[in-house]
Design a protein that fits this description.
Blueprint lengths: L1 H9 L1 H6 L13 E11 L8 E3 L1 E4 L11 E4 L1 H7 L7 H12 L29 E6 L3 E6 L5 E5 L5 H14 L8 E4 L17 E5 H10 L2 H5 L3 H6 L5 E4 L18 E4 L3 E10 L34 E2 L7 E2 L6 E10 L1 E4 L3 E4 L1
Parallel strand pairs: 9-10
Antiparallel strand pairs: 1-2, 1-10, 1-17, 3-16, 4-8, 5-6, 6-7, 9-15, 11-12, 11-17, 12-15, 13-14
Length: 350
């Protein structure tokens, strides 16, 4: 009852549009705009994702384990990551909150400290590895093409365990000036948007928009990069596809900014803003070649010229010309009603 009262106060239109009848049906005028094709989580900032068939999301939460870990660069560790052994969990959270603090003049939830971490922009070797969480504080790093375990730690709060992963990346990453620090903090997410404690965001791509940009980008004709490999560059948590009626067109999602979308039966998200693209989208995700070796990761400077010139709302403000601010593809959303989402769920605009 308390939850429903709170929802009625904060989001009265949502509660009204999703009231259920005695037979469990949903009474609303929502319009189906697509289908949930894929769900991804990125346990380690910069590394590849894990693909999920379903996920449980909570209000202000993201996909479980998304950006739960990050590699703090060696040159910043001494100044930015001090752990009190008497209460390492509390200290880790405090450190993460400080690193993720919103910079002056930025929208709440944005921060500009990504340079403190190893990331795909500077460390394209990260596309060759995939990470997955084990238990509450463990991490396993695998070869993305073979699944072979490259490094693992059972508990990142234990230094000797954590060092197994840190030393591996100290050797792998060419930009490393020393051994990085594997950082983790419950309730925080090492993202560039929505990284406040107890809040996370979902990054959403649509297959229609990605395909449009792919076809406008000339490099694939000569390099042989597939659409599937190209789509990985944009690192989405959720991928929306057409529901089979051909109604989802390229860049339709920008018009959803400031509106609410339901996924499946129960989950409702609010679309915050379009996603500004950083140079990490130039990193290639090609499959192994015939010799079994990973193809060299090469930048693609052509891609940024292929983004559309459109308008969209940013954090519910009046729509602006996106070309004046940068290159955009995809949207960010926050969960306002939690539940279970599954691949194949209908996507409805409320």
């Amino acid at each position: 009852m308390k939850h429903h009262t709170l929802m009625r106060t904060l989001y009265p239109s949502i509660v009204a549009s999703t009231s259920r009848g005695v037979n469990g049906s949903t009474h609303c005028d929502a319009r189906v705009i697509g289908r949930l094709r894929e769900i991804h989580t990125f346990p380690l900032k910069g590394a590849r994702s894990q693909k999920l068939e379903f996920a449980s999301v909570q209000r202000d939460g993201g996909i479980p384990d998304d950006r739960k870990f990050a590699l703090l660069r060696h040159e910043h560790a001494a100044q930015r990551w001090q752990i009190d052994s008497k209460d390492s969990e509390r200290a880790a959270r405090a450190n993460a909150c400080d690193i993720l603090r919103t910079a002056d003049g930025k929208d709440v939830g944005h921060h500009s400290n990504k340079h403190l971490f190893h990331q795909l922009i500077t460390d394209t070797e990260l596309v060759n590895v995939r990470a997955r969480c084990v238990g509450a504080r463990g991490l396993i790093v695998e070869c993305a093409s073979t699944g072979r375990v490259l490094a693992e730690c059972a508990d990142s709060a234990i230094e000797r365990e954590r060092e197994k992963v840190e030393k591996f990346f100290g050797t792998l990453l060419k930009s490393a000036c020393g051994v990085p620090t594997l950082t983790r903090a419950d309730g925080c997410s090492f993202t560039n948007v929505g990284g406040r404690p107890d809040e996370h965001v979902l990054h959403i791509n649509t297959t229609a928009s990605v395909r449009e940009v792919y076809e406008q980008t000339s490099s694939w004709e000569t390099t042989g990069e597939t659409l599937d490999a190209f789509a990985l560059r944009f690192r989405p948590n959720l991928v929306f596809e057409d529901a089979g009626d051909g109604s989802l067109k390229p860049f339709d999602e920008f018009a959803w900014c400031g509106k609410n979308v339901r996924i499946g039966r129960d989950v409702i998200i609010h679309i915050n803003e379009p996603t500004i693209r950083c140079p990490s989208t130039r990193a290639r995700y090609d499959a192994p070649n015939e010799s079994g070796k990973e193809r060299k990761v090469q930048p693609d400077v052509d891609i940024r010229s292929s983004f559309p010139n459109l308008t969209a709302s940013i954090f519910d403000r009046e729509a602006v010309n996106l070309a004046d601010k940068g290159s955009y593809l995809g949207i960010y959303a926050k969960v306002i009603v939690g539940g279970i989402i599954r691949a194949g769920d209908d996507i409805s605009l409320l």
